[in-house]
Design goal:
By secondary structure, this protein is an alpha/beta fold. It is built from six helices and eight strands; from the N terminus they run E-E-E-H-E-H-H-E-H-E-E-H-E-H. The chain has an eight-stranded mixed β-sheet, sandwiched between helices.
């Protein structure tokens, strides 16, 4: 039987940001140690099977998760046509900040420490949001991310940051290695042996989830408020 403390079904939510309504799914264990907001990668959405798989495994580690669309349906259609919005890091960052504010205002999430998990271009948004909201973001994890796209925001990040890359994803390894010195915080670059950019190899996403779960648990649990206050 599953531990009831780690059970939690996803609840559909709507986040209002910049006059658009972004759909999402919030899942909270019975006794969460924190909540992780996901920023998906290029051309993806809250339905990303990779992020959803990682989110489910984080839930088993007693971490809540918020997966949401960074673009609304009209913008998604525009991005499918032009491919431009997925690289608009400033826009994606503002949307993620709106989600952070939504978590801070939520009755069930306001007291929870918050982490950001970014994939691909979403990693740049996660790092930029962490730089803009140092009092809100307690930890960042990037999966196959493009931290280089965060630019000058890297030096302003105050949250401990874990960069996870696939061992066979050589261009992205180089981008992460180049970004690492610009992070002036506790940081780590973890390489999943044999994994390609999408971590499609057997066990690759499980490795990502283990690394991310340990990082978030370590840094969010320090700030968690116990149930008895």
């Amino acid at each position: 039987m599953r531990d009831p403390a780690v059970s939690g079904r996803a609840t559909p939510v709507v986040i209002e940001a910049e006059e658009v309504r972004l759909e999402g799914d919030l899942a909270l264990p019975t006794v969460p140690t924190g909540v992780v907001a996901f920023a998906h990668g290029s051309g993806s959405s809250r339905h990303s099977p990779r992020n959803r798989h990682v989110a489910a495994l984080l839930g088993e580690a007693r971490l809540g998760t918020l997966l949401f669309d960074l673009l609304d349906s009209r913008e998604e259609m525009e991005d499918l046509r032009t491919g431009e919005l997925r690289f608009d890091i400033a826009l994606l960052t503002r949307r993620l900040i709106a989600a952070l504010d939504w978590l801070e205002d939520g009755a069930t999430t306001a007291a929870l420490p918050v982490g950001c998990f970014g994939a691909s271009t979403g990693a740049a948004a996660a790092l930029s949001a962490a730089a803009a909201r140092p009092e809100q973001v307690a930890a960042v994890v990037s999966r196959g991310g493009r931290p280089d796209l965060a630019g000058e925001a890297l030096a302003a990040v105050r949250a401990p940051t874990l960069l996870i890359v696939g061992g066979a994803d050589e261009p992205v390894i180089g981008m992460n290695q180049a970004a690492l010195p610009h992070l002036q915080v506790e940081k780590e670059l973890a390489v999943v042996p044999g994994a390609t950019h999408l971590f499609e190899e057997p066990g690759a996403l499980e490795a990502v989830a283990r690394l991310a779960g340990a990082w978030f648990t370590r840094h969010l649990s320090k700030l968690a408020i116990s149930p008895d206050g």
